[in-house]
Amino acid sequence: MTDDAGGVRVNGRAFPLEGMPDDERLLDTLRWRLALKGTKEGCRTGDCGACTVLVDGRSTLSCLTLTREVEGQEVTTIDDAATDPDLGRVRAAFTAAGALQCGYCTPGFVLALAGLLKERGRAAPVEELLDGLQGNLCRCTGYAAIVRAVELAREASP
Amino acid sequence: MRSDLAIKLAGHAVYGTDLDRPGMLWAALVPSPVAHGRLRSVDLAPARRLPGVVAIGPDDLAALLPGGGGDADRPIFPSGEVAYRNQPLAAVAAPTLAEARRAAALVRVDVEPLPALVDIETAFPSWPGAEAARSPHVIAHVHARHGDLGEAFRTADRVVEETYRTSSVHQVALEPHACVASFSNDRWHVETSTQSPFGVREDVASLFGVPEETIVVDGTWVGGGFGGKGASLLEPFALLLARAAGRPVRLALDYRQEFELGRTTLPAVIRLATAVKGGRIAGRRVRLLLDVGSSLPGRDFATGYSIGFLLGPYRTPAFEVEGYGVRTNKPPFGPHRAPFAPQCAFALESHLDEVARSVGLDPAAFRAEHLWREGDTTPFAQPVGPFGAEVALERARARAAEWRAAAPPDHGVGIGVGFWSTSTGAGGEARLELTPTELTIVQGEREIGSGSVLRGLVAVAERELGLPADRIRVDYRSTADAPFDSGVFGSRTVGALGRAIVEAAERLERTLAERLGDSGPVRLAVADGELVAVGPTLRRPVRELLTPEEGPKGLVASGRHFAKPNSIDEQRVVTGSFYPYTDFTASVHVAEVAVDRETGAVRVEKYAAFQDIGVVVDRATARAQVEGGVAMGLGIALTEEAVWSDDGRLVNAHLLDYRIPTLGEVPVPEVTFVEGFPGAGPFGAKGLGEPPIIPVPATIAAAVRDAAGAHVTELPLSAERVARALKLL
User: Fold this and answer.
1) In chain B, count of helices (H) and strands (E)?
2) Which residue in A39, A134, A141 is closest to B628 by CB distance?
3) What is the pTM of this model?
4) Which ipTM did the prediction report?
């Protein structure tokens, strides 16, 4: 995809990964190598969804992904300053619905929903979108406001 | 709108887990391999041989802390008895996390295993009996009584006696505990994800034997608290390592450790016996066996506070309550949103259903007959204040009747009542600073997610002073610079710290009125981009009312609130401590559930919450608290149960096996606020963080019983337990 073979692209910027161990997780690369702390570390076992990012537009658990697996692919995280239109729509929907409290699960939910909207957009029934978020845990909201945000984001999608 | 949405949606909020400092070392704890034992030795030498590793154990405390270093009740590192599995025996720090873990694994600990007490019932096979009070395992004993209970039981039409069991539940804040500590110039400094910076400061000071002024606690953004981040946990270890290393040290738990070391609600056995005469409650005897883990501090709190909830907000002419806090080889008991109240409500409400049915009465009507009204007294002779329980119950009954009329045959509808009182903690203070363009609230609580700080306190100032929210800023400061406050717990931020804001605002208003030369109340408004003081007849820009000496902070006013003095009748107390109520808050819930007649699986179809709130300070934030509380309560009701093996291992220390509710399992609840029964907070507000979780397990149990006839007396109502109650297994 780019001329920086061996590197990773995050939010449109290329990062070389010199000296990175082969078993480094994408979550750790983002947070500790690239200092992009917006992606949150919850369980590190793929059960909570807090670390969800997009890899070439697909929702991906960064705690269970080796960085080497995504070399040359485009990674999108919550740190992306509103260049991704789906991310922008989801942020607006979460704001309007007040769909967060402590905010720790929020980056994961936002990226997961942005990924679902990229796949299906407005054509997806709400139930299907909600089903696609079952792997993201939230302890604060009881999901009620998140359900409202999903409806708003879907309506705003093309 | 809350001011934290944008920063959190941009990924810019720095939580405890995100902390990073130049030159920082990473730390790891050395866990006890057994649940109970005698520590023979801790050999740090193999770890210390690794390059860049700093290791500390029991023998290093005297040098690091000349003034103290824990006590028998709260050892930093145990030097004699090891009390629970994974109890930290030593700590190490290294340049990377991987190196720290390697070093921790190299520490040689020698512990002589002793028999572990894990399940409280194994220690009391014939409980309740008089021997309980003499048991070496009992570390807290509370006992209170009033009225002629013997007479009530002798002359009763019916006595219903039942036993309930509740499970160990974890807060599951998605952010595990994390902090970064440093030490220089004889000052301890820690940044940490906490509900109470001042609480952590007090804990560390008493543990270290150092003055509070030598410790600075700086709160980060908090990824959920729910009671789990109210006291110190990792901070002492990180601070001691930082002192030993001469560098900043980061200590964070991984999620397995979060389960294993978190302080949370442990199991209990509750025995309730109620005497009924002429369709009325004549008396109740309560026996509580509460697992308090290896806890010693706060042991009376757990038992003495809980036991009031087992009498409930109901008129009970005669009673005797006795509670035993049982020390087990588990981590210390800690608070979990409305500590132990949902479990007590489950037992009491299910029991009242049984009592009502036993004398042929409708359970909801039976409750309505007995609910406290303003002017009644509590079991400890405290006058009951304004209480919205009756109105909430009436509305809940109407909703339940509608749902029941339309429900399919495999569905059931249940009602549950919860009771709570806003905590004041140890009091607190807030400062207001008024400049020509904005008002700043200076205080020492960090927003933990509920919105109580960034929205609740702002809404209080907004309502009191009249200026719009976009002109009000909340300035959080560390313990070095903030006025003292107890912290975010006990539903106290709006209800208690909010009163300090009102007091400060009133002072501000008085000063402005004097300077304006107007007689009546002064409010603030915005005109031409600046703040204006508006009296009944006069108005002037704030700019013109400030004096040059007031400087850039502008006009400053402080307000305080205090802890409520104890007002219970001590004549009724035989042993231990019991707790007075600040105000009286009711939560009445209705659920419709479907029960699978082959598997016992319960699905929640509809949910409605009727919440006594005094006055709604901010509707969206209040509704969000109820929605979140209901979901968390559904976890206690249906799926959440930490399972401990006989040798004290937490079997399901993992989110896959410890199941919290997921998005598809929680219906969006209908939320109705009952106003008009004022509490102790500003404008009559009542604390709201905890009440909505309280009646949930009771409500679900009532609905399951209504649906399938299954009377389940043990939490959670897993498919297996429901199936057993239905004799399917």
Assistant:
1) 20, 27
2) A141
3) 0.97
4) 0.96
